[in-house]
Task: structure prediction
Amino acid sequence: MIQGGIIAAVYAALTLITPIFSYGVGQVRISEALCVLPFFTPAAIPGLFVGCALANLGSPFGMADIICGSIASLLAAYATSKVKNKWLAPLPSVLLNGLIVGLMLSTQIPGQAWWAAILYVAGGQAIACYALGMPLLFALDKFRGKLFGETRRKEE
Result:
């Protein structure tokens, strides 16, 4: 529970201190680097869900973003926990956030094409999850036992 709480707090803080990057179609949330954490520990699943819900309290898209963004994070975190290949760990977040948040934003922004919103959100997710998340994953992998216990099997 402590790990989940820390993850939630860090996710929310990283999102809220960088609002210019955190909301809208062109978002690249620095906090999304944390999407790799379910690869190591199941505590990250509720942590990312709660962190996203808290962060989206500051969203200009209100309840739609709180609900859809949090559900997207929950589903992506769960899917990430099932991934066996570390290079694919960020992919659920890229695909699910792109689809769910992109569709939500296309309903909230007048004239926004759904397909473009999906592509933009997925692109921002790819930048955050791969450019920031993969280095985080490799750095944490060196200390996996000390940080997370042996909750995840050793990888190839």
